[in-house]
Amino acid sequence: MNRFILLLICVLVLPARAQDAPDPSPVEEAGRWAVRMAESFMARRPIVRERWDYETGTVLRGIEELWKKTGDARYFDYIKQNVDAYVRPDGSIETYRFEDFNLDNINTGKLLFLLHERTGDPRYRKAADTLFAQLRHQPTTSEGGYWHKKRYPYQMWLDGLYMAEPFAARYLLTWGDPATVDEGLRHVALQYALAARYLRDPATGLFYHGWDEKRVQIWADSLTGRSPHFWGRAVGWYAMALVDVLDVFPKDHPDYGTILGIFRDLAEAVRRVQDPVTGVWYQILDLPAREGNYREASASSMFVYALAKGVRMGYLDASYLAAARRGFRGLVEEFVSVEDGHVNLNRIVKVGGLGGDTLRDGSFEYYMSEPVVTNDPKGVGPFILAGVEIEATAGLSLTP
């Protein structure tokens, strides 16, 4: 073909095609965004962390769901590579300290079920046995609520529900003694019920970050024992803890309805504080106009995941799907950037804690003072989960 004619075709036809086919929206491309985020993270960090902790498990849960969706062996290999960096041939876990009674250290154990199921390697079961044994001996409040860590006595934090309870429920139903499974599941449900009793604000339906039974911590209200603010990521952990434990909790168990009811109430409260302009959520959920507050990526990703999955699994009605999709669009538009072909997730608060060596007082100023970082595992994992879930809802209607 004459080169001039070919050039003329390019000039006249290609722009028209581009105009006829606009770029797909972030929601339509949610699965692709999940893949790009995962592969960018995997390229940057072949080993997620230098020790066995909850951040590794947070990213690997996203990779696990991506592997289930795609069947791509690279995702399974990445999970195995990261877990094998710590689980020794005898099933012991390098860098893990049983005596710390740290609920955070349970989280990565969620991947042990997949690895044992796919490989049959007994060391994964032994590692899971060790983590469950920690929970059996975990110090508790007077009513049986887990201390967040041994060094945080008589304190329940929302974070701990996500770290421990979906693992505990699945362990009980997979490897638990049949004679004690029901008792164990009741103890799992108790953790959610105690959090709802002591951490839920009846006016907003939101949850405070922590509760001190003794009311002696620097951050604790002297009457209620609660920390003073609704920290976005803490509520996000709790939302994910609820929607994930419902996956495995038997629907005919007497406590199933209690957990489901807590999740539905929380979902409504979370939807009420979604930013109407961007679709994402603020670092302190109920104070969007306060100077210094900012829209934060990890909490927003967690809420999108929980709401979308809640609809897909039938825990929530279809009206929540619009909030989830608006949220995912906001995630991409507010927080994602592309650099040298790799995807970044920006504006993730690095940490948020209570008390400890630095006497974190739970004030608004404290939460605003923590560093804001890019590509932190606590944001990347939930973003991948959110993308997978939004794609899975593609065929669902927005109307109940």
The separation of the N and C termini measures 56 Å
Helix content: 40-55%
Portion in strands: under 5%
Structural class, please?
A: mainly alpha
Q: Can you give the mean pLDDT?
A: 93
- Number of beta-strand segments: 6
> Element order, helices and strands?
HHHHHHEHHEHHHHEEEHEH
- Strand order across the largest sheet: 1-2
Q: Which residue ranges are poorly predicted, with pLDDT under 50 across at least 5 consecutive positions?
A: 1-22
Q: Round the Cα radius of gyration to an integer and report it.
A: 22 Å
Number of helices: 14
What does this structure look like?
The protein is mainly α and 400 residues long. Helices cover 53% and strands 4% of the residues. The protein is built from 14 helices and six strands. Strands 1-2 form a two-stranded antiparallel ribbon. A two-stranded antiparallel ribbon has the order 3-4. Strand 3 (336-339) and strand 4 form a beta hairpin. Helix 3 runs parallel beside helix 14, helix 9 (232-248) runs parallel beside helix 11 (297-312) and helix 11 packs parallel to helix 14. The longest helix is centred in the middle third of the chain and has 19 residues, at 181-199. The chain is globular.
